[in-house]
Structures are given as structure tokens and as C-alpha cells.
Amino acid sequence: MSPFRLHSKYNPNKEAEQFASTIEGDPSIIVITEPGESYLASVLKAKFPYAKRIAVRYNEIAFSDSDNLWDAVWRPGNGSLPFFLLSHIPDEKLAGTRFISWKAADKAFPDAANTIWKTIRNTIDMLTSIMHTRSFFGNKWLKNTICNFINLEQPASLQFGAQDFILAGAGPSLEQLTAVQATSYSILAVSSACAALTARNIPIDLCIGTDAGYWALSHFTRLPQGVPVTFPLEAAVPTSILENHLCVPLSYNSPLETALFTATNIQPLVARENGTVTGTACELLLRHTNRNIILAGVDLTAAKGFIHAQPHASITRLFAETNRVHPLADALAVQNFAAQSLETYRQWFLQLPPESARRLFRTGTGGAPLANIRPIDLPTGISDNVQTEARLSVTPYPTLSHQERTQIALALLNILRTEVPALIATEPTRLAEEAATLEKQICALCNYTAYCNVVKNPVDKKAQTNLAEQVSRILGSLIKRIET
Question: For residue 341, is pLDDT > 90?
């Protein structure tokens, strides 16, 4: 154990009280790094009775007898710290979260402290990015959810089969995959990779899309007719796909999804929301199968020139937008700069639990290194040991008519347009509660910034009025769009 003393020799409780007195405001979540013998725990509970208190430990076993004094505790053996923090800190409560270190512990465990605080700063950046994403996409997610629900004509259930999988991303290394190499595998392809696979005569067993922006629509343009599609309702999916392809809806178990699926007896496939479509697809296979997963085209880094396997929908837009004043080289440079965010996604793969990572392999050359995922060379010729197990497949099932789904959506939206503004005006504190509710989700989708302002200060009448007006306006506009 370190020679540094972590607590006062004479009055550690008084020391804890003095420490707690320096915490400003009324935080909803307090994260303390290595609180030692946890004298702080009871002091914080007394001073901030409604705050969630989280301890982040620097050591695997030290001070374990006081862990039960905290609402949540992380130790190095518990896995990814970012995943832990993201699961305990709703992004709308980031502004009300205090991250504080017990300085004596930082001196006693300098290496651990440096690593932990670097990770915490990265997690805060991730939460901030999530908040920006929610603010930008909220309205799109709401519109997509309702419209996809209404236009979903051919719902289907998914049978994963017994073959191993190739998960095809859209990185340049996907161009190294051949039809012969893919023969023995079920192919799950992100929507942006489908054009490149089709151009190489590689059959696609299932296409997955999760992006909500309009640019995602073009990825489905040349999707072969018989390829089924899976997506969460919030994704941008062309109406032609919803009407003419077998569709396996994914569910993140949000209250709005649950309400819509329950009303029509649609049986979605449970998925986990992820920052990337590749991450969502990978988790889907890890969760629902016990087979191996080979990553192809999952490069997770910017490349010189084109950053996607070709052909790719984005290059068509680039050519359309370039000229002598704005040449293609400039557009590619901007695209590569934006791709720097791929490092965040690489970290997600690096922090996978060992029991998940050991089922993952990676084929092709190039891309950012992933030390926890083993490379694999796929055979270049036809093998005598071709897998004969059942491939991934889908089976359609009946649902309510388009008109019936439309009426269900309209009825729900009209109820919400009346009830949510009333709740904001009379019981705004309910929006700050832990439980996920339909009312909270609607507020966040309609105007995330206004929602966060009410969560931060529920008694602010101006913030309440602004949120209520935004909810009424957005829902009213959506209702009018559906009716016409």
C-alpha cells in the first residue's frame, strides 16, 4: 500500500465535511475517484440526499468493505469505464454531474489516476457528442419513427442460422473481399457497404441501416430486390424499401417504439443503440448468436483518397458538388478530416469484454489496429469444407393495414400533444426522474435543449413554457403532415 495517507489521522469525518462543502450547486450525480475508506459517502448523502453517488476505484480490491455505501462502484476488473459511466449518467444530466477526485488518492496511485481521468475526459466528450447528436437529430428521429411505422408493409422475423458471419463495413479494405471468400458465411452488411458488395457479386443476406439523416437514403438506391433490411424505426429508410422489401424492425426498447409495436403486435428484434451502424450490427450478432463474426471493411480510420469502398453513394454527391474552384481533392480532404471521429468508434471495439472479442476476427489489410481482435486470412479458392449449415433468413408475418397503422399513430400523437404540455406545466419534476417514460422521450425528441433546461431547473417557468410550446408545435406539424 502507498505511504501516502488517504484520510486525516485525527478527524476523517470532519475532513470529508470540508471536502463536501466545496461542491457547488445541487448536483444530481456526483462521481468521486478513489474515495478510499468512503468517509465521504455518508457526508454526501446528508448534504445531497437526492444525488446519485458513484465511486470510481483505482485498485481492484482495496477498500472493498465500504463499497456498499455508494449507489454504484466501478473497479478496473469491471470492464469498460466509459460504458459504466454512460450507463449511469443520462446525457441530459451531464450538466448536473460533478466529477471530483480525492486528491490524496491521486498522489497514492498516480498512474491509475492519470489513466482514469483521461478516460473520464474522453467520456465527457462522448456524452457531449451524444447531446449534440440528440439536439440535431431529435426531430428527424421522431418523424422517421412515425413514418416508418406507418409505411412498414412487410414485417418479418429473423432466423440467424448456424453459419459464421461476415459483418461488412464500408471501409476501403472491403474491396479485398471476394465472392469466393464469402461463400461459406452469412453476410450482414451495413447499408453503405451494399453497393460495393453488389458490384463484386457478393450476395447480401441482410442489410442494416441506423443513420437518421437524409444522406442515408441513397445507400439503399441499388439494393437488390430480394435483400431483406433491418433497422430501428428512427432510421432514414426509403418508402420503396418499406413497401417492397422484407423488413425486420429493431427495437432499442424506447417507450415510443414499445407503444407503437404493442398496438400492432409487431415483434421487433431487440438491439442496443450504438454510435455507429457497425457497432449496432456487431452487438446484434453478439447478443443473438454464438457464432464467430469476421469483420470486413471495418477500417475505423481515415484513408488517403476515398474513405469508403467503391462504389459508394457519397462519391456521387462529391462529384456533383465539385468544380474548378472546389476540386475533388479538397472535398476528399474535408471528408478525411471528418473521419477523425472514427477513433472514438475504434475505442468501442478495443473496450469490448474479452468473452465478446474472442468471437471476433478481422480480414483484409489496412485500417486502424485492434489489438484485441485477431486477424484471419480467408481462403482465396473454393474449399472442400464449405459450411452447409443454415444461412441467415427471414420470414414474413401479417400486420395491420396501412390505414389502421396511420390511425394508431395519429391517435397517439394527438394524445401526446395534449398530455405532454400539461405535464410540463403541472409536474415538471417528473421529467427529471430516473425512469424512462414516453413523456420524457417526446420532450427530448421535440427539443432536446429545451428539455435539458427543464431537467436542470424544473421550477424555471420560462423554460417550462418554451418546452411546452416546442412540443405542441412539433407534434402539431407532424400530425398535419400525416393527415395530408
Answer: no
